[in-house]
Design brief:
The chain is an alpha/beta fold and about 300 residues long. The protein has 2 domains: about 10-115 and about 270-290, Rossmann fold; about 115-270, 3-Layer(aba) Sandwich (Isopropylmalate Dehydrogenase), CATH 3.40.718. Helices cover about 45% and strands about 20% of the residues. Strands 3-2-1-4-11-10-5-6-9-7-8 form an 11-stranded mixed beta sheet, with helices on both faces. The longest helix is centred in the C-terminal third of the chain and has 21 residues, at about 285-304. It is globular. About 50% of the residues are buried.
Length: about 300
């Protein structure tokens, strides 16, 4: 069975990848990168104000003398420098340190100097929770605030490819809404119907989509049975597509804090993976996210 332990072991068997750790000026950010290095996941390159990085390392009781540090004036410059390193192939993954997500992503999505592809980038949480019998991917929970239909097409395709990377060959995608029927007063149901038809027309490939589905019948076969929903996805979802960032982020945090879920987060759809954890995340979350990003990077290399 695919779980975080198996993904972690898989990631350790892959070649170590050089990773730009962007603006790591807190002990938590330093420790997360160092632990990932000790576990043979990454070779960190610390990018940011050198005095703040050294101070954070002292607080974390970590020796950085054997690691490369690229000094910048502030967090904005750190993001730009990290992206520049990725563009010329000096690093293969980015890892968010102690800066805001929008600071990092502004440099990443820059049309001329960023890491964009033809597809829209999106964030995916992978959740391991005692209440569900398998890993559950949640998207988009951090980047796209009000995605339109074509944005959602890319968000779904990105999540499907991440699912492929971690070993889910034909992921089942539940397109979430508040109800299970199409209603012209609820845009998420219209989008769900369109996305399913786009799958029929091969505009989305590699997975099985169904929606609109409410959260209960997306993950509970019993709920789907009671509501008489006949679907290959209902009660068996591997991927949950949220209607918007607000609902996706709240869903992820509720699973984490109320259902004891462990979460790993990564940005996909760009040239390289971006490990995008919360500044409040502990070292374990950063480790699991590094493992996930490393596996996705290997998948990208195999595709190219």
């Amino acid at each position: 069975m695919i779980n975080f332990d198996s993904l972690f072991e898989e990631a350790r068997q892959l070649p170590v990848i050089k990773t730009a750790v962007v603006h790591p000026v807190t002990p938590e950010a330093i420790n997360g990168a160092i632990e990932a290095a000790k576990d043979r996941l990454i070779t960190p390159v610390f990018v940011g104000p050198i005095q703040k990085i050294k101070q954070a390392a002292e607080e974390a009781k970590v020796d950085l003398s054997s690691y490369e540090i690229i000094t910048t004036e502030h967090s904005h410059a750190a993001a730009e420098q990290a992206v520049a390193l990725a563009r010329v192939g000096k690093v293969s993954m980015l890892m968010k340190g102690s800066l805001h997500t929008d600071e990092l992503m502004k440099a990443v999505v820059d049309k001329e100097k960023g890491l964009r592809t033809a597809r829209r980038m999106s964030h995916v949480f992978v959740a391991e929770t005692p209440a569900y019998g398998k890993l559950l991917l949640l998207t988009d929970c951090a980047l796209n605030i009000w995605p339109d239909l074509m944005d959602k097409r890319d968000i779904v395709q990105n999540a499907i490819e991440l699912a492929h990377a971690i070993g889910i060959s034909v992921p089942k995608v539940a397109i979430l809404s508040a109800i299970e029927t199409v209603n012209d007063q609820l845009k998420s149901t219209i989008d769900a119907a369109a996305l399913c038809k786009m799958t029929d027309r091969k505009q989305i490939t590699g997975g099985i989509l169904d929606g609109p589905l409410a959260f209960d019948n997306a993950i509970s076969e019993e709920s789907a049975r009671i509501k008489e929903i006949i679907s290959p996805v209902a009660g068996k979802a591997d991927i949950l597509l949220a209607p918007d960032l607000e609902s996706g982020n709240m869903l992820a945090k509720q699973l984490q804090y109320l259902a004891n879920a462990k979460l790993a987060g990564v940005v996909v759809g760009g040239r390289i993976p971006i490990v995008l954890t919360s500044r409040a995340d502990h070292a374990e979350a950063r480790l699991i996210s590094c493992a996930l990003g490393k596996i996705y990077y290997s998948y990208l290399c195999q595709k190219s």
